[in-house]
Amino acid sequence: MRNTTDIDPGSRVGSPPRKPSRLREYARLMRLDRPIGIWLLLWPVLWALWIAADGHPDERLFVIFVLGTFVMRSAGCVMNDFADREFDPHVRRTADRPLAKQSVSPAEALGLFAVLALVALALIIPLNRPTQVLALIGGVLAVTYPFLKRFFSLPQAYLGAAFGWSVPMAFAAQTGSVPAVAWVLFLSVVLWTTAYDTIYAMVDREDDLVIGIRSSAILFGRADRVIIAALQAGALGGLALVGWMTALGRWYWAGLLAAAALALHQQRLIRNRDPAACFRAFLNNNLFGFVVFAGLALDYLFAG
Fold this sequence. Notes:
This protein is mainly alpha-helical and 304 residues long. The chain has helices at 22-29, 36-52, 59-83, 106-124, 129-148, 155-164, 166-175, 180-203, 205-211, 216-220, 224-245, 250-269, 275-283, 285-303.
């Protein structure tokens, strides 16, 4: 007897399976079903906006940067999948992506990317000239990142630069300049991103070795955990320096202490290099970003 759980309740017996909705496939291509990337990109934006504005960011800039984060992350995912469309079918975690299973064509992906790029350009029009210049550089970083995995052994660090570029942009938009503290914060974001994206790359290490994709997880080998710990320590040290440079108080330091505890928890998760546990450690970085921002926001709230 046929198992009734195999029947699509929305279809009739004998009818062909329904094709996935085109809009749903576009949403999946933009990775809207997996918002973790939006949050990981957004936290440094919020850190920078709050510090640059002494806890009171301009409302218009807040809206522009939040929308810009959403749009650029979506565009980056589309370009990433376009660049990896020949590789993704051979990796278990990515085989179901729209381009990998050919539910969306490469031409459609490029068209969607073009629309998102135009929206991003529209968002930077109200910003000052220094921010516009920085935004264009950030766009180049985001577009070129997916292609580095063919020949560059440390693409995670390049992704860190792309993710962290929002920091000098936020300072330029809010203050018209990019002070030293902005570059310290930028470097902290680069180190943090390199750490968590290396953890993410540990999930796919075996598949990447087979198909020839390069990553920091492959480059670091058995030293991966030690190097990730060093990167996390560097990120926390940079954030501590930011706190000292801006005279932040106990709420901020409490947030950093919580972030350090989360980094230790991630080290515990990746100790056996189990892919599922490594993926949980990667996801845990959303909480890392949140506690740093929570400490920052609370410090400005009660100090003001």
